[in-house]
Write a structure and sequence with these properties.
outer membrane lipoprotein receptor (LolB), chain A, eleven-stranded antiparallel β-sheet, globular
Length: 316
């Protein structure tokens, strides 16, 4: 009888040990699945999903063949972005868009720091990932704090340029918190698991810079229609919406459609939407990326402690 009880206890212990190891390994491969885009001490977080402007077209999920084509075009266009000149001819339709986006970039850079609720959607490996998180950003030195609301509620991530050997640090919540704080290179497989871009590209300034670079490259070619619409609502906020469309997929175009929303008063870029080409003529465009910043509070006087795991308001 005693031998049977001992064997049962050993099996029970081994079973829970295996489960604990599995949980730890799962955490190690899923934590820090963050961008951006895109804190707790300044302003507090909201559990509500940010309001969204109604898009004229309904985005569709790409087929596997379509996703491969989109990735191929994006790879070619990324190379083109580095090779093409950044000047835009005065008579090119994209000239006004670039000028307004650059004005928005300057307004963003004039802000020393800010907090916001970031809602993002990104197509990664043919799957649209959605995340909502409370964020803090500081421009000098570039610093990011993220606290996830959904999914992975309670997860926290910190990145500061020049510290921690260039790595981000993060931890999960709940039973996954057993693994403690982990450190990853921003471009590592683990950190990029649910993201199109590393955390070093997060924030409104990096977001609008990417759009400017894209439009400057696109302006070396034609085949583009441009539209700007004033007083477009993103939630309760009034914005100028700049929209560009390339009707045909080309190696040098990264996206079929781009929309940039610039806040009417502050000139801050509060949303970007990027769409891929429809699989069939007349079909629906494919939502590839969306980043929306709401509840923005600027120039809070954020300091090093706002981007430090020893902050008592954080759960590191």
């Amino acid at each position: 009888m005693r031998k049977t009880q001992t064997n049962w206890r050993r099996c029970w212990s081994r079973k829970w040990l295996r489960k604990f190891i599995a949980i730890s390994l799962t955490l190690a491969t899923t934590i820090c699945g963050v961008t951006v885009s895109h804190g707790l001490a300044a302003g507090g977080a909201s559990s509500k999903k940010p309001p969204r402007a109604k898009a004229p077209e309904k985005a569709t999920r790409p087929t596997e063949k379509m996703a491969r084509k989109i990735e191929e075009l994006e790879g070619r266009s990324a190379t083109a972005l580095k090779e093409l000149p950044k000047t835009v001819a005065d008579n090119h339709p994209l000239k006004p868009c670039v000028a307004k986006a650059e004005e928005s970039l300057q307004a963003t850079k004039a802000v020393k720091d800010y907090s916001a609720v970031l809602f993002k959607q990104e197509m990664v490996q043919n799957k649209l990932h959605s995340q909502t998180m409370f964020s803090k950003f500081r421009h000098e030195p570039f610093s990011v704090y993220l606290k996830f609301e959904q999914p992975h509620a309670g997860r926290e991530v910190i990145y500061v340029d020049g510290l921690n050997k260039g790595r981000l640090m993060g931890h999960d919540a709940g039973f996954r918190s057993f693994a403690g704080t982990v450190n990853y290179i921003p471009t590592s497989k683990e950190a990029m698991a649910e993201n199109r871009y590393p955390i070093t590209q997060a924030g409104m300034a990096k977001m609008v810079e990417a759009v400017i670079t894209q439009w400057q490259a696109d302006a070396q070619y034609q085949e583009v229609t441009v539209k700007d619409v004033a007083n477009v609502k993103v939630g309760e906020e009034s914005c100028l919406m700049l929209e560009t469309i390339h009707p045909q997929p080309r190696d040098h175009f990264k996206f079929h459609k781009t929309r940039l929303y610039i806040h009417t008063e502050s000139k801050l870029p509060i949303r970007v939407e990027q769409y891929g080409w429809p699989e069939k003529e007349g079909g629906e465009p494919v939502l590839m990326e969306e980043y929306t910043y709401t509840q923005i509070k600027t120039n809070l006087g954020l300091t090093d402690i706002d981007f430090d795991k020893t902050n008592k308001a954080y759960q590191f």
